């Protein structure tokens, strides 16, 4: 458990609010009970949120670099950014985990209070324009990848027919050098470019192996017999 923020209630000198972050729901239960139900008794320490809405909402969501762990917090109060030990704009907080301040106004991801009652923060028009372009670029990427896989599919067949190994490390080394240089001149992270190529090539090799396996198991494909010309 980590105390991510701790502050007092301006209107109640005895009022302390702590925002706690738990590694996981499983590791929340014990320390939570120790504070609220333990021997120390409940000396006026009340969970602000009695029933945690967050774990239920995030259950089953994939975790990974693109999906940061959601905050495991029992706080329902606003966090003044200057009091937060972590920059709040970096805190993974999504719409579902947005909460309300003591005044009842929604708390935004950067810890400020949005006073337009009940409304989510407005998204700027530029965000939508940029997303339109991102969608177009993603569509182009999908089409380009589909074309690349058509070519590599044919390479896979050629390699299987000639019993060539699916992977060609020398070719890969040339590709890496070339793509890293291209990435650098395009101001793209060359490490990312290399990782992306690795990811692609690994998939291609997988396909090549599947093609070679299916040929081995089914034997070489029968060549179509050319129709005899009528004399
Ligand atoms: O060029 C080849 O030999 C391929 O099989 C294609 C490809 C690629 O996807 O670019 C895939 C595997 C090889 O190790 C090298 C390159």
From TrEMBL:
This protein's UniProt keywords: Isomerase
Pfam families in the cross-refs: CM_2
InterPro entries: Chorismate_II_sf, Chorismate_mutase-related, CM_bact, CM_dom_sf, CM_II_prokaryot
Limits of the Chorismate mutase domain: 121-212
Entries under SMART domains matching the protein: CM_2
Top-level taxon: Bacteria
Biased composition (Basic and acidic residues): 32-43, 113-122
Biological process according to GO: chorismate metabolic process; salicylic acid biosynthetic process
Coiled-coil annotated spans: none
Region (Disordered): 32-122, 212-231
GO function terms (MF aspect): chorismate mutase activity
SUPFAM superfamilies: Chorismate mutase II
NCBIfam families linked to this entry: CM_mono_cladeE, PRK09239.1
Name of the molecule in the record: Chorismate mutase
Lineage: Bacteria, Bacillati, Actinomycetota, Actinomycetes, Kitasatosporales
């Amino acid at each position: 458990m980590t105390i991510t923020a701790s502050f007092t209630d301006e209107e109640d000198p005895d009022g302390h609010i702590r925002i706690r972050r738990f590694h996981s729901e499983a590791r929340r239960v014990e320390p939570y009970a120790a504070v609220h139900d333990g021997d120390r008794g409940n000396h006026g320490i009340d969970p602000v949120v009695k029933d945690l809405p967050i774990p239920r909402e995030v259950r089953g969501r994939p975790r990974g670099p693109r999906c940061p762990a959601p905050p495991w917090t029992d706080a329902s109060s606003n966090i003044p950014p200057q009091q937060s030990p972590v920059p709040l704009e970096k805190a993974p907080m999504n719409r579902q985990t947005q909460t309300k301040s003591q005044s009842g106004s929604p708390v935004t991801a950067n810890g400020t209070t949005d006073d337009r009652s009940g409304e989510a923060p407005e998204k700027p028009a530029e965000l939508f324009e940029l997303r339109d372009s991102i969608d177009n670029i993603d569509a182009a990427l999908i089409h380009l990848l589909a074309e690349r896989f058509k070519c590599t599919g044919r390479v896979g067949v050629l390699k299987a027919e000639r019993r060539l190994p699916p992977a060609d490390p020398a070719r890969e080394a040339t590709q890496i050098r070339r793509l890293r240089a291209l990435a650098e001149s395009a101001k793209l992270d060359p490490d990312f470019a290399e990782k992306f190529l690795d990811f692609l090539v690994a998939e291609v090799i997988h396909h090549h192996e599947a093609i070679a396996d299916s040929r081995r198991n089914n034997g070489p494909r029968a060549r179509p017999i050319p129709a005899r010309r009528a004399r």
